[in-house]
Amino acid sequence: MNNPFQRHRQSAAGDGALGGTARVDARTKNLTKRLRSGDVAIIDHADIDRVSAEALVACRPAVVLNAARSTTGRYPNLGPQILLDAGIPLVDDLGPDVMGIREGHRVHVNGGEVWDGNRLVAEGTPQDADTIGRSLEEAREGLSLQFEAFAANTASYILKERELLFDGAGVPDVRTDFEGRQVLVVVRGYHYKEDLAMLKSYVREYRPILIGVDGGADAILEAGMKLDMIVGDMDSVSDRALTSGAEIVVHAYRDGRAPGIARVEELGVEHVVFPATGTSEDVAMLLADDKGADLIVAVGTHTTLIEFLDKGRAGMASTFLTRLRVGTKLVDAKGVSQLSRPRITTLQLFLLAVAGLLALLVALLATNFGQALLGLSGAWWDDIVNIVRGLLGMAPSAPTT
User: Fold this and answer.
1) Angle between the 143-167 and 317-326 helix axes, to the nearest 10 degrees?
2) Torsion angles phi and psi, residue 223, rounded to 5
């Protein structure tokens, strides 16, 4: 099999190995906040999902080194293929030793070998189209097991959260008034930037309540929109968003633990707590539905089983049930952008008609016929004025020239 790094080594400096400054983090979404083009991304991410892969591609690292298996066979995840298609090399299953490389060190990758200076740290499997294809094929064969596990998690979630799902028990009071309003829930998921861009006219016209789920709050601000509420565990939202004046709803575990409280209290931001077993995007939708929202538009949320599994949490069963609970109120962003058209008001129609008549009048006056017609109209108007004056006993007016 050909070495997938051959073309990269030819353009690299020094001994020909691919290298760069190490950026190390077990959590991919944290790593991408400080990863720069040409760096070496070192992660510990089993089953690299689509969102994480797209975030890595946006940073343009020289290579991605994964301590774990990028596809475990649990389900056919798309992350490795996305990295391959973007031309970013991936070395897989390097083991825990690679996570011991210090941040900022200069590391080199030669084939599947990872070197920290003159020290061989770990050795893994370089990924190419063949290895990724085989892994995905094996994962598809085992997908039925994930269906069974998903069904079991769904049943478990119903037992734990039946009062919340069916009666709205535990939903906190908030100052935002949802009654009769439309709501836009933004999650930093698949194609969220493109979907937000398509919805700008919808936001201008309908002025929905804008809810950012964790990092989705920053996405709303980056799009130049006004943020109304932030829902989540506050692990991937900026201080700028938290101090923007938006209402804060901290998602807590059912046992009362809420890691995000410490951060908002440190910032001195008022907040309410919503304990629930599901994900933060579920919490946002359940809150909007319980408080009387007419329509919930979703950006970047999860809709298919593969997307649920991509999230890597058993709690994703809650997302499926939340959608059943919210029902017809929930609309995907793409559907809204296709169906929503700017409404034409009566005033706009009137102004359009006036503009058309003025344009017609100007064009008419530019012709000999138009000028003759204007003269006749003036004479006709003089006759009417003189008749009115005569009826009122007044002297006739001078004729219009």
Assistant:
1) 50
2) -80, 0
DSSP letter at 329?
A: G
pLDDT band, very low/low/confident/very high, at 365 (cuts 50, 70, 90):
low
What type of residue is 341?
R
Query: Per DSSP, which regions of 314-367 are E strands?
Result: 330-332
**Cα 117–Cα 119–Cα 120 angle in degrees, nearest 5:** 120
Residue 160, domain member (yes or no)? no
Question: Looking at residue 256, what is its pLDDT?
Answer: 80
Global confidence as pTM: 0.62
Q: Percent of the chain, pLDDT > 70? A: 72
State the residue range of the domain holding 234: 171-339
351 and 213 belong to one structural domain: no
Task: Supply 267's token pair.
Answer: 């910032």
| Burial 291-327, CB ≥16 within 10 A → b, else e | bebebbbbbbbbeeebbbbbbbebbbbbbbbbbebbe
Q: Alpha-carbon distance 38 to 312, whole Å?
A: 28
pLDDT, tens only, 160-217? 766 666 666 678 999 999 999 999 999 987 778 888 988 998 999 899 999 999 999 9
Instruction: Using alpha carbons only, give the angle 156, 158, 164 rounded to the nearest 5 degrees.
Output: 135
pLDDT, averaged across the chain: 82
Is the predicted pLDDT of residue 9 greater than 90, yes or no? no
Nearest CA-CA partner of 277 in 163, 395, 390: 163
In angstroms, rounded to a whole number, what is the distance separating the alpha carbons of residues 244 and 399? 68
Report if residue 158 sits inside a domain. no
